[in-house]
Amino acid sequence: MDKIVAFIVASIGGMGYIGIVLLMALESSFFPFPSEVVVPPAGYLASQGEMNIFLVILSGILGSILGAFVNYYIAYKYGRNLLITYGKYFFINEEKFKKIESFFITHGEISTFVGRLIPGVRQYISFPAGLAKMNLTKFIFYTALGAGIWVVILAYVGYFIGNNIELIREKLHIITIIIIPFIIIIIMLYIYINKKKKKA
C-alpha cells in the first residue's frame, strides 16, 4: 500500500491544487487512499509560503465531494437492482432493504454529515445515500460540511506539524478520539430536536 501511495503521490502530487482535488477524490471514493498523505503535506507547503492554505482546504473539499459523488451515482444508478438481485447472499432481502432505505430517507442528512467524520465510514457513506436517492443538493451540502471539518483538521495539522507522516498519523489518531464525543453530542442534539418536532 505504501508503494502504491508513493507512486500516486509522485504522479499526481506535482500538479498542485488539481493534484489535491484528484487525490482527495480517490480518498472519498471506494479506493482506500489515505487522506493523511495528501492534505497535510499541502498544509506544510502552505506554511512555507509555497501554497495557499485556503486553496488547499477548498481543493480538499472539492475532491471529497467529487469522490463521494462517484459512489453516490453508482449506488443511485445500479445499487437498487444489484441489492435486490444479490442481496440474499449478504442476508439482505427486500424488506430489510426497504427499512434501510426508509431510515436513510428520514435521517440521511445527519448520517451523511456524521459519516464523513468517521474513519472507515467516510468513504462508503455515499452508497446508502445513493441507494435511498437522497436529494443531491442536500447530499453535496452535508458531504461538504463533514468533509470540510476533516480537511481543515488535516490542513492545519500539516501546517503546524510539518511533513512528518508518522507524527501526522499519531496526531490524527488523537484528534479522531477527540472527535468521537463531538459526534455523540451532535447525534444526541439531533435526536432531541427530532423528538421536540414530533411533539410539536
- Contiguous low-pLDDT stretches (5 residues minimum) are none
Binned, the helix content reads over 70%
Question: Tally of extended strands?
Answer: 0
Structural class: mainly alpha
Whole-number mean pLDDT: 81
The percentage of residues in β strands lies in under 5%
Query: What quaternary form is this?
Result: single chain
Could you give a short account of the major beta sheet?
A: none
End-to-end separation in angstroms reads 52 Å
Radius of gyration: 18 Å
Specify the overall morphology: globular
List keywords for this structure.
200 residues; globular
List the helices and strands and how they pair.
Blueprint: H1 2-12, H2 17-28, H3 39-47, H4 53-86, H5 94-115, H6 126-131, H7 136-161, H8 165-199
Helix pairs in contact: 2-4, 3-4, 3-7, 4-7, 5-7, 7-8
Outline of this structure?
The chain has 200 residues and is an all-alpha fold. It has helices spanning 2-12, 17-28, 39-47, 53-86, 94-115, 126-131, 136-161, 165-199. 78% of the residues lie in helices and 0% in strands.
Tell me what you see in this structure:
There is one protein chain. By secondary structure, the chain is mainly alpha-helical. It has one domain. Helix content is 78%, strand content 0%. The chain is built from eight helices and no strands. α3 packs antiparallel against α4 and α5 crosses α7.
